[in-house]
Amino acid sequence: MIKVGIIGFGTVGSGTYNILQKNHRIIKERTGLDIAVTKIAEINQDKLSGLNIKKDIITADAYELIHDKNVDIVVELIGGTTVAFDYIVDAIKNKKGVITANKALLAERGSEIFSLAIRYKIPIGFEASVCGGIPVIRAIKDGLVANKITGIMGILNGTSNYIMTKMTEEGKPFREVLRDAQRLGFAEQDPTYDIEGIDAAHKLCILISLSFGCKIKLSDISIKGISGIEPVDIEFAREFGYKIKLLALARKDGNELEARVEPAMIPVSHPLSSVADVFNAVYIMGDRVGPTMFYGRGAGSEPTGSAVVSDIVDIGQRLAGYIDKNAFTGLKFNKKIKIKEAERGFVPFYLRFMAQDKPGVLSQISGILAKYSISISTVIQKGRKENGYVPIVMLTHEAIEGDLKKAIKEIDTLPFIKGETICIRIEEGLS
Ligand code: HSE
To answer: Residue 203 CA: which ligand 1 atom is closest?
Structure first.
């Protein structure tokens, strides 16, 4: 029997437990493993009341679970980067298999955890740390093992994708949609990590280490959230044949790696553009296979529990001797890859200026753009005046982001321009 201890009986912990109860037989038929939850550590034991769980397997002390001889695999589901780290380190040192869904911890302290795991020859499962129920970690590790990965584009955060979808469908402003999402339970009361791109960046760090074998810090990723996106930009995007998504991107460019999370326009013909609501998707380009895409629920009790159970099976098969116990399961960080500075990015851009409607405005704007070698591909001016100002929208050809920012800074000082110019990258896809 494979004996599992779960630390944290919240949304994911209870989902994992339920799956192991409901699908025990089918998992056993498929894998040959008889899996049982033999210990649960939860501080708030009200979460376990009313469930048919034997009292003697419940504890408030995670260390009691980690040191229990009746636990083979420790599943850490409490989140955070301090206590969770201590539990994982202790479990590794106690020679228990370890599973975590904790993306922030892996993004910030993954190299410490995996070097310890290598030293102690302990398998670590982390399928649930990126995009909940989507088996993308295993896809990269196993299914795509024959490939050099050249790029990843992903919608890695369900909350922001839900907000962008509702803004697109209903034309409502960001704040109003966020409030609705919070009321409906699709956004946290403190949504900062989700809407400001940090959650997606944590997941991108893990995907990058896994795909490119290098160490990456959160500060290496250029991160921008969705709070500055306005319905008018979504509407212009639609007219040009694009959708705006919070896009996580990692792309090899020679010896460098470009890594960003920010709102971007993607063509409506790109498969990621139809990923709506709380769904996530990861589009991966392999040098042998070409493009692949993985889609599903990025959060939720049983979707994320499904990923945790897949790790329990993987580690269980090692413990049962079906797979070489020492086969490596984790992240390696030994390759040196230079991170490309965000300012050197080279893509087309969407620009929206709010300008007075009078002669000479366009020529002055385009003059400044020309000074920075930025070439315009399309210009439109339409819509009603707002307090005397109209939107002027431009699409540029590929431009160096740093040059574009300098040009915008100069344009924004012109007397006939109101507020800050909106600038959104256009990502046509990976080649
Ligand atoms: N908060 C995340 C999201 C789910 O909105 O996608 C957990 O990673």
So the answer is: 8
HSE at residue 346, side-chain half, CA atoms within 13 A, is 4
Q: What is the mean pLDDT of the segment spanning 182-203?
A: 96
191 in the same domain as 93: no
Q: Write the pLDDT tens digit of every residue in 99-128.
A: 999 999 999 999 999 999 999 999 999 999
Determine if the pTM surpasses 0.85.
yes
Q: Does the structure show a pLDDT above 80 at 333?
A: no
- Does residue 380 register a pLDDT over 90? yes
Query: Which of 199, 205, 304 maximizes ligand 1 atoms within 8 Å of its Cβ, making it the mutation to test the pocket?
Result: 199
Instruction: Confirm whether 385 is a catalytic residue.
Output: no
Neighbours of 308 (CB within 10 A): 30
Q: Compute the average pLDDT of residues 326-331.
A: 66
List the CATH number of the domain containing 374: 3.30.70.260
Cα of 276 from ligand 1 centre, angstroms = 14
Number of domains observed in the structure of the chain: 3
Q: What percent of the chain has pLDDT over 90?
A: 89
Q: Is 147 exposed, middle or buried (0-12, 13-18, 19+ CB in 10 A)?
A: middle
176: containing domain = 144-297
Alpha helices in 222-266 (DSSP H): 231-240
Q: Is 157 in the pocket of ligand 1 (CB under 6 A)?
A: yes
Q: What is the pLDDT of residue 282?
A: 98
8 vs 303: CA distance, rounded Å: 17
Calculate how far, in angstroms, residue 154's C-alpha sits from the geometric centre of ligand 1: 13
Q: Is 159 touching ligand 1 by the criterion CB < 6 Å? A: yes
Asked if 304 and 293 sit in the same domain, the reply is no
404 neighbors 374 (Cβ within 8 angstroms): yes
Query: Ligand 1: which atom is nearest the Cα of residue 103?
Result: 8
Which residue minimizes the CA distance to atom 4 of ligand 1? 299
- Residue 125, C-beta contacts closer than 8 angstroms, at least 6 positions apart: 97, 98, 99, 100, 308, 310, 311, 312, 314, 315, 329
- State what percent of residues in the chain have pLDDT above 70: 98
Contact 50, 333 (CB under 8 A): no
Q: What is the pLDDT of residue 329?
A: 63
293: its two tokens = 């895409």
Indicate whether residue 194 lines ligand 1 (CB < 6 A).
yes
The answer to whether residue 330 sits within a structural domain is no
| 339 lies in some domain | no
CA of residue 406 to ligand 1 center, whole Å: 34
